[in-house]
Amino acid sequence: MLRLLAVLALGLSLLTAATARAQATDCTGDPAWAEAALANALSLNTLSWTPFNQAETGWEAYVPILQHEIGVKCDPAGGAFAAGLARFQARYDLPPTGVFDAATFIVLKGVLQERRPFVMARVRNECPDPPPLNQLGYLLPEEEHADRLTRLLRRDVLDAYRRMVEAARTEVPAIAADPELLQIFSGFRDPEADAARCAQQGNCDGVRRAACSPHRTGTAIDLYVGRMAGMDVDSTAPESRRHMSRGPAYQWLVANAGRFGFRPYLYEPWHWEYVGGGG
């Protein structure tokens, strides 16, 4: 009984805090979604699940993309968010509960993956050829991150990247104040060199270096979006990705990278792929 009361007290505290934050950002929701909001408040940092083949606790790292996808940039523990999530669930024939769960995440992941031409090519068992060398351009030294020097990108991708970074620094003072943010630590990677490295390291089919990587196309970029102390710039540890998701660079990219033709990879906050069509 005491444990149940403690859980209920925690839930009430979280819901009260969420309501206060929602009111501060004009995100108050219909009281009808209060129960769903409470469920989301409880699971936000406690859900035990395995979304990408490793155990994680909570789903905060995925909140910025989920907010963008449902068109509701409100507290994930509030009623407005729950209502928006219910609309998303209904759109994809899921029970419109407004409660975040693994089934909702699987649909979100599928929707985002289908927007990446490289992924669709791999579904067809294709591995895209690298671009001719005359289509590649050199990064400027200030565009390269010191941790993982890269040199080349497809020229149109490089142009779009530069427009995007200029906009980010113009629109967000915190990004402008830190020149390291949005530097590239991996761009075009020669397939033969990539294959040799992954064979040497024994992880050719792993997350960090696939046998057929999107970086071979010259359209994929890994951007520095901040790092947790003691972690690599591309650490896939859940706490590292959660830390990145809270930063101004990643949150701006989620909301704005599409303007410049870039699409995200849900699992890696640093990885973006150019699909064209940006403004």
Provide mean pLDDT, rounded. Answer: 88
Q: Helix content range of the residues, please? A: 40-55%
Give me the Rg, rounded.
20 Å
Strand order of the largest sheet: 5-6-8-7
SSE series: HHEEHHHHEEHHEHEHHEE
Please summarize the sheet with the most strands.
Answer: 4 strands, antiparallel
Strand content: 5-15%
Distance between the termini: 58 Å
Poorly predicted ranges: 1-25
CATH class membership of the largest domain:
Alpha Beta
The total beta strand count reads 8
Computed structural class: alpha+beta
Shape: globular
- Work out the helix count: 11
The total number of structural domains is 2
CATH fold group of the largest domain: Muramoyl-pentapeptide Carboxypeptidase, domain 2
**Would you identify the CATH architecture of the largest domain?**
2-Layer Sandwich
Give an account of the 3D structure:
- This protein is α+β, with helices and mostly antiparallel strands and 279 residues long.
- The protein has two domains: 2-113, no CATH class; 130-274, 2-Layer Sandwich (Muramoyl-pentapeptide Carboxypeptidase, domain 2).
- The chain has eleven helices and eight strands.
- The strands form three sheets. The chain has a four-stranded antiparallel sheet. Strands 1-2 form a two-stranded antiparallel ribbon. Strands 3-4 form a two-stranded antiparallel sheet.
- Strand 7 (262-265) and strand 8 (268-274) form a beta hairpin.
- Helix 1 (2-24) packs across helix 2, helix 2 packs across helix 4 and helix 3 packs across helix 4 (79-91).
- It is globular.
- 36% of the residues are buried.
- The model is unreliable at 1-25 (pLDDT under 50).
